[in-house]
Amino acid sequence: MSALDPDALIALTNIDTVEELWERHCAAMRDYGFDRLIYGFTNFKTETSLGDPNDFVVLSNHNPEYRKGFVEDGLYRHAPMVRWALTNEGFSSWRVMGKEIEAGNLDAKTMEVVAFNLSHKVVAGYTISFQSVSRRSKGAISLTAAEGMTQDDADAVWEKHGKTIVLLNNLVHLKLLTLPITLPNQSLTPRQREALEWVGDGKTMQDIAQIMGLTQATIEKHLRLARETLNVETTAQAVAKASFLNQMYVIHAA
Fold first, then answer.
1. What are the DSSP calls for the chain, one per residue?
2. What is the pLDDT of residues 175-196, one digit of tens each?
3. Less Cβ around it within 10 Å: N or C end of the chain?
4. Which domain, by its residues, includes 218?
């Protein structure tokens, strides 16, 4: 079935879990020769930072060693294509990075990232930077060409299928923004979620206790645990973050 077949697109828009959506997208990109992906999104970007890494939404099918080095150990901070994505929207061939290397324009930390990528055979590909919905949000995806492909090969694929690839990635990005996302150790319990939902509806502690049939002390405990789970200081921040992660008002809550 063609990736742009109406039935396939309808099925994609009806997917209700991040896991299924990501699995299908990785398979679709593999068909175009891009077999390793990293998707990242934050809603907490500032002028000088992408925010707390614990708040990032990151999806990847790279091997665990690469994910640890690039994401967990923070190499992404100095990655040239990440820097490009922060100040641009649209897509870019990694050829621009090769030109910067040849010109000797990259600093030592950036060259460390380049060396790391070479060691993992991450040598050719494209980066798509999605249109931001606010000044604090940024989403992007890195598409790594299959081992053995050169940047010339990747560019040839893009010349033929680039618009389709961009469209599919845009659709997946927009779909991800609607799905409940659970960051590591940041999954709310049903009671925590319900208490936050009532706070978001403007209810008082007394109202929430009556609605949920619990004591105010128990409600305050659920909200405290929700704040701790989401790694925030105030209940208002917890409501905002739970909303960002689409963990509020979900139909199929875990």
1. --TT-HHHHHHHHH---HHHHHHHHHHHHHHTTEEEEEEEEES---SS----GGG-EEEE-S-HHHHIIIIIT-GGGG-HHHHHHHH--EEEETHHHHHHHHTT---HHHHHHHHHHHHTT--SEEEEEPPPSSTT-EEEEEEEEPTT--HHHHHHHHHHHHHHHHHHHHHHHHHHTTS----TT-PPPHHHHHHHHHHHTT--HHHHHHHHTS-HHHHHHHHHHHHHHHT-SSHHHHHHHHHHTT-SS-SS--
2. 998 887 776 666 788 899 899 9
3. N
4. 190-244
